[in-house]
Amino acid sequence: MRKIAALALALPVALTGLAGCGGSSGNDASASQSSGGSGQLSGSITVFAASSLTGAFNQIATDFKKAHPGTNIVFQFGSSGDLATSITQGGSADVFASASPTNMQSVLKAGDATTSTNFVSNTAEIATPPGNPKHITGLADLAKVKVALCVPTAPCGALAQQLFQKTGVSVTPAASEPDVKTTLAVVQSGEVDAGIVYVTDVKAAGDKVTGVEIPTDQNGTTEYPIATLSGSKNKDLANAFVSYVESSDGQKVLAAAGFSAP
Question: Where are the beta strands (DSSP E) in 9-146?
Fold first, then answer.
């Protein structure tokens, strides 16, 4: 009788142990894409980001991966308008960082994200080839020279049009580029005499261009929203990256690149 009683007591313990093993297996499967029981992040995400964020986001990704070994961030940089269109048409991404609230709104309205946060802002600046050979001093001079602008559907192009409307300057661009990086490249090549880009692009280019500041009363800014996308297959990692961008560490990198607080 004592042996039977001992066996009866042992069975629940054994069954409990088996149930624990089954639960652990399920957790391990989910951990391969997001976080495990310890809260450690893993896996990879794709971030669609405005081209003006290239330098800062590459640095942020390097810092983030040092803080979270075993993670990977894949970027697709481009015009915010093009990236938003790709997302709403089924493009696969986990995070979207736009250079314009307008483009983010199209993603939100399509149900591809539920909420977004403005994390930085940026200001326009005139870029010229090194040394400013045409001696451009302000927006009015752009009516007299060859100018490169972003297409109006890109945030940098929409911002340029706002400046022209505000000041009454009429400019017919010699080059219309898909995003701010290609606009800056045309200026660097000497194909045009000037272009309207962001202060961050002029700063990143160093001595490859000369910047001409636009007075505050003539200038404009654009806000940059960021969001985890509804279709993300690794939301733990996507949310963690968004949080890192918004953190003091991420903001220090963005400030060093010339971005301002939102």
Answer: 43-50, 71-78, 95-97, 117-128
Task: Please say whether the beta carbons of 192 and 115 come within 8 A.
Answer: no
Q: Which residues pair with 176 in a beta bridge?
A: 149
User: In angstroms, rounded to a whole number, what is the distance separating the alpha carbons of residues 239 and 42?
Assistant: 12
Sign of torsion over alpha carbons 225, 229, 232, 235: positive
Dihedral sign, Cα of residue 103, residue 241, residue 246, residue 49: negative
Tokens of 55: 């330098």
CA–CA distance, 126 with 145 (Å, rounded to integer): 13
CA dihedral 75, 77, 80, 82 (to 10 degrees): -100
Which residue type sits at 148? A
Residue-wise pLDDT for 106-146, tens only, equals: 999 999 999 999 999 999 999 999 999 999 999 999 999 99
